[in-house]
Amino acid sequence: MTFAFSDRHVEEYRTQGYTVFRQILPPGLVADLRRASAAAGSLLLLVLVWPFLELTSALTTLMDTGMSFELAMGEPIVDVLIAAGSAALIWAVAVIIPED
Question: What are the boundaries of each domain within the chain?
């Protein structure tokens, strides 16, 4: 299993804007990378979906019992604040921190 660069790679890059170097990585390494990225993908999905679940909880409470202005866990205003704070932290991690 050896990789050989060819004119086909250059032509693919010029026509499509990218080329694929097949058989450049050992299959075991590719399998390990897929397993590792699957775990990270699940965690990322959870982090990105969680604020929307909090908002759904707040809206469900609003539709069932109406608005109240108590500051206790499970109250709609607290759920909205938690969701907003979580979304702001996710944005900060994605946008602000990588610039440093």
Answer: 26-99
